[in-house]
Specification:
The complex is a heterodimer of chains A (186) and B (746). With 186 residues, chain A is of the alpha+beta class. Chain A is built from six helices and nine strands. Chain B has a seven-stranded mixed beta sheet. In chain B, a hairpin with an 8-residue loop joins β4 and β5. In chain B, α7 packs antiparallel against α10 and α18 crosses α20. Classes of the chains: A alpha+beta (186), B alpha/beta (746). At the A-B interface, α1, β2, β3 and α5 of A face β3, α6 and α28 of B.
Amino acid sequence: MARYAMILDTRRCIGCHSCTVACKVHNDLPLEMIYNPVTTIGPTGVFPNVHMMNLPLLCMHCGNPPCVDACPTGASQQSPEGIVFIEEKKCISCKACIMACPYGARVPNHEKGTVQKCDFCKERVHVGKLPYCVQTCHQKARIFGDMEDETSEVYKLVNSSHPVRLLGELGTEPYAFYICESEVKL
Amino acid sequence: MSKNIDLEQEGIQVKKSCCYFCHQNCGVLAYVKDGKVLDIEGDLDFPTNQGGLCSRGNIAMKHLDHPARVNYPLKRVGKRGAGEWQQISWEQALNEIAEKLSKIRDEFGAEAVATAGGTQRTDDWARRRFMNLFGSPNGFHNAHLCWIPTFMVETAIYGWCPFDLDLDNSRCLVLWGQNPGASGMPEIHHIMDLKAKGLKVIVIDPRYTETAAKADMWLPLRPGSDLALALAWLHVIIYEGLFDPEFVDEWCVGFGELADHVEQYSPEWAEPLTWLSADQIRESARMYAMNKPGNIQWGTSIDQIGKSAGAAMQARALIRAITGNLDAPGSDLLTGPSPDFVTDEEMEANDQLPDEQKAKQIGSDKFKMVTWPGYSRIAELTKEVWGKAPTAEWMCEAHPPSVFRAILTEKPYPVKALLVSATNPINSYGESKLTLEALKAVEFLVTCEYWLTPTAMLSDYVLPVAGALERPTITSSYGCADFLLASQRAIQPMYERRNDYNFWRDLGIRLGQGEMWPWETVEDAYYSKIAPLGYGVESYDEFVENYRYHFPEREYQKYKRIGFATPSKKVELYSSVLEELGYPPLPTYIGPSENEVDDPDLAKEYPLVLTTGGGFMPFHHSEHFQIKELRFIRHEPYMDINPATAAELSIKDGDWVWIETKRGRIKQKANLTQGIDPRVVYTQRGWWYPERDMREPELGGYLESNANVLTSVADDDCDPLSGAWANRGLLCKVYKVTDANEKEAK
């Protein structure tokens, strides 16, 4: 069984927002809903000695997802491959999952009366394609693959570049891994 | 909706289309059924973007059928700018436009008809063909601000202009006034790959850009001081012996003169002009010269610094030449024109324009490099060595601000009609107020457009044009590279949109040019271009489906076989072509268009240095402001200012501020950032507000936040070689918007 993961290589991300826009357009999201914002940190320092980094955010597809536990109707689920998703017809929009997610990765859709989130484009992934945000990233700052496959790029990178897991101390075991310049701490 | 569309369903065709929202023309796969595009995605097999699409590329579906698109020919029925239109047929529109142009030609001469173009979004050779056959030399683009002066100056020196990267073999890359992180996505991707393998990257830019953040060295020079920096680099490279003596001896003329000439331009001399330390200048020059082979990438910035632009291009070209970084592996490559396919120039029918009409080209008396005097000399030299000339549409143009002035003053003669295609001059040409006056004054204005822009609103006719997914595209770097990338249309144009090719052809036929337009469709015309390649295809679409691109085998150092396309067949460090045209043969220092050294009084009133014109995501030029899926990222215009300067001026982050030059003022919001020198401000360009009332006098807030209100097109501020006007390095002041000062007339 595969275990999907995504690596966000902040050394390569230039903050162009193409992932944000691609995701919005292809998932047909209302204007106020964003699955994957990109936050720019900086420039920090004092001119001309400055530094800047871009941090793409998304659902972490946690190994231990608090949102799934918090869902009273069973709408929030995790697939055997680790993809955290919402079965929309079961969602009553109680927003308990939104409260439970420490990453702000879930957004209410007021038009539909459901909560929605990134699901790694599971329909695409099931037919062997990449999630839109990954395919569209010119910079190849997003790398997607199977952590169970020792030949995959994600497996190799996670095991060679000491990536950071956001809020790792919470024990949510995110499967979104961040590669940063050595001097930057998240 | 795309998520719910089953792309595996029966009857779906996959079309090899492309993105048209910048020049990169990234490959796109369009999923089409029953003549409708269901979805698009980046083409994983396309050599440049490899599946990637930037934010603009991703809104193709929103652009295709946006409710604000112009879909039918419109004829003005009310007063100009009143927004009262009558929907008419293409037949009627073309007949009436042809009749009017014919009348103007009879009364005032063909030169009284001018055309304005924007960035490459159109079949420019078709426009040039129309104009040549009509008899007018007065076609122009924003090309003066974008590569064209660079191309011509460099071609004068070494017979073509590098426009191909050989980065895989390179050890150093200089991004001079270029920010591919916000403009050229396939390019920055490639750079990052190679940087990981040891490529040194130097970014020369007043702003700490997306690209500067990834560089090995960032040189935040005073905006517009590029010439001083380039001269100082020449000094360092020559006097520290970092040049390539073999290449210089064998392949260059005028090295002694150059060495004597640049002795005066030491790093210490450049220090106060560039605001860089002499050490920074030395270190950067060494990094480039000692990491051979190296590239210096062209960026638009030098094209946009006005008065000293031409000399700066000349100096930058000489840096490349004396280090031997020309057409060698890993350096800047001189591809020359393609010997294999029919180039744009060969489609333009330039020989059909009589010499007496060429002589009337507006601006050709002042700015000789990108007008007929310079172009014809360059064409002669390049034909001798390469067999072909550079594309005339772009390289040989009327001087746009001079055309706008001719409309207003009838000097040197009246210009009565302006046909606008793929541009919104009020926002994109310099000194917006002058441009606006000209657009209001011109007797006959026709605009081919996607949207009702402020310019379109002032037009007599607005014609709906086909967009990215509705038209085929050939990319060959403006007809100046030896490779091409081809895309097909995903669908026939929706509503009554048409290709600009069909506009020029149909207009031409009505004006008696019928015999010269044998290709009924643009695909037929493209097929005639690629047929000589010998792929054995029977149509353009077949070429795209089976081959899609043509990359000839790379031959390095072609000069060893054919020489350089200059009078001496060598690199002319001391340029005989420039001398012939009446310009300094060696790059000679002149200050930026406006600066604190030459004009301290002006600097007292306007103490900050302005840079504008830089691209920023997610927009392109003045486009896409109506697409909410992009606009939400940058809802309002922002200008960059250092927090120290902002504090002195009592400006807080997010305050609306006025930015004022002696030509006018605009409003943008303050973005406090350490990424800019306390003495510099950067304004975003292009802004207008399509969500507002588009009728006069509001016209979508066309002057309110438009950076071109601030820029200068005065002859004295323009580059004497090319006429490039000044967007960067101007002097300005900044102050907070208040109720009181908002009411002041300015």
